Amino acid sequence: MPNLTINGETFEVATGERLVLAIEGSGVNIGHRCGGYARCTTCRVEFEAGEPEVMTKAEYERLTNRDLFGQVRLSCQIECDRDMSVKPLITLENEPAWQDTGPTPEETVTPEAEWFPIEMLTGE
Ligand code: FES
User: Looking at ligand 1, which atom is closest to the CA of residue 31?
Assistant: First the structure.
């Protein structure tokens, strides 16, 4: 089972668990305002270690059209398939206007995911 480190604290998570749900399961109120469909970017995280070298097309398109590509990853588009260390950036606690973190994401990545090597998406 992979280790997930969040803000310096480490938890064991189920292999293949959706990252946004693993973060939430560890007690961090990370945003997922679109319900995990790669639309809102509130599930964004900074990777400190273990960043996947693959990405869904939905994540790539959303990050590039919000000028976030290369800075953050969308935790709703990532499965815990290795040890990872992340910093969640948008939480209920730092968004005073929110009543909640958003609709509960499904257990599997949505929209139906296919992962591509990042350099294939960027055309490099
Ligand atoms: S982009 Fe909305 S939950 Fe991930």
Answer: 3
